[in-house]
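Hello,

I think I submitted the pyridoxal-5'-phosphate job twice by accident. Can you confirm which output corresponds to this input? Input:
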Amino acid sequence: MNEAAPRRTNEVGLDPPLSRSAAAFLREQRVVPGGSMRHASWFAPHPPYAARGQGCWILDIDGRRILDCANNFFSLVHGHAFPPIVAALTEAIGRGTAFGLPTEGEIALAEALAARNPALEQTRFCNSGTEALLAAVKGARGITGRHRIAKFEGCYHGSYDHMEVSLDSTPANWDDAEGNPASVPYAKGTPPAVLADTVVLPYADADRCAAILRRHGPGLAAIVLDPHASKAGMVAMPAEVIAAVREACARDGILLIVDEVVNFRLGFAGVSPLFGLAPDFVTLGKIIGGGLPVGAVSGAAGRMAVFDHAAGKPRVALGGTFSANPLTMAAGLASLAHYDAAAVARLNALGDMLRARADAGFAAAGAPARLDGMGSLFRLHLGTRPVTDYRSARPTVAEAAALPRIHAAMLAAGVLLTPNCSGALSTPMTEEEVALIADRLVEACMATEGWR
Ligand SMILES: Cc1ncc(COP(=O)(O)O)c(C=O)c1O
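Support: Only one job matched these inputs. Its output is below.
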């Protein structure tokens, strides 16, 4: 190339020669909108493409070794290619992948859930957390005969219409005329009826929450909550808010749906007991599938009877072609069997160590940043303001500009976080990996300008 020639870049703004991942991204852009199957896992200029995973490490197609803290959005509690899961899948796949008949595997996984928490007395499996929420909401409607639901502002519960309401409200639209959280559409084309039927609650304001529930309670089928919601900052829902929810449910006959799709991993019996919650339905997903697609709705037999078809057409029909598929059942059973109380406690302690080490590093560097989270889940917050809910967790303009650069610096240092700089630990990790994550995170923040 002539030295004086202008610098040539390709469609993704990268200089040739391309890495294999850059070439794959160019190829994918032609056949997939945005060049990515998932909005959530895309980041600029493009993610590295995975070739294989082993334990807590990923090897990308360019041969780079990356410490995986994304764990497929917290669904891999044992990391990659966990030998007991590989063995269970190898055994199961030889017997056939799907039948128009039940299998014993679905009984075993449902029994494993019930053994961990008697409140998960009965279960129906589906293929994603989104479907689990959809099923639980339909179940609550079927039982109560009401159709409106309440959810908390900014909280993610999958891509089902009602669950997306007020997922990304902004200061320009987040209050209604009375100063309560407004029902804000997320997807273009959201039907107005969806907004009218979804009441939005504040995550950290018990008085306002109680007042909204006093007004709307008698018309609500369900309140959906996640007591440690990632999009609300990965901070605990205050006990006073939980008390206001409990009171409204008892007073107005509203059913409580606790979304444990992510947070089931926080306790052997899941997250509800840790927050004193007694849900009517629990939605599950992620780690209970051992890395395969999964969702589930669980609850006491009296509640789950809404899905019972034994006497003819059920009040709410629930099922799908691949529901309770034998491979997911086998992988899920192996995943849970190796995530016993001791394993949960060990992983949670590693999470405490991670937060303490990172926070000590930030303090020593005089950096106004910290790691929030609980157990094996963590999320980076820039700034010194207390984070209590979706609004306070929302990054400032400067922080929003810095986070992708910190994410990129982490990746350059060989650590994969989710794009909003959160992560989950996995059982193959030891104190060595945890120290590495904490130290790299402090270094990445300090090397990034513009947010301090
Ligand atoms: C709290 C919560 N609920 C539900 C879901 C939806 O699960 P899925 O992606 O399996 O549909 C997610 C996904 O990340 C989640 O974080």
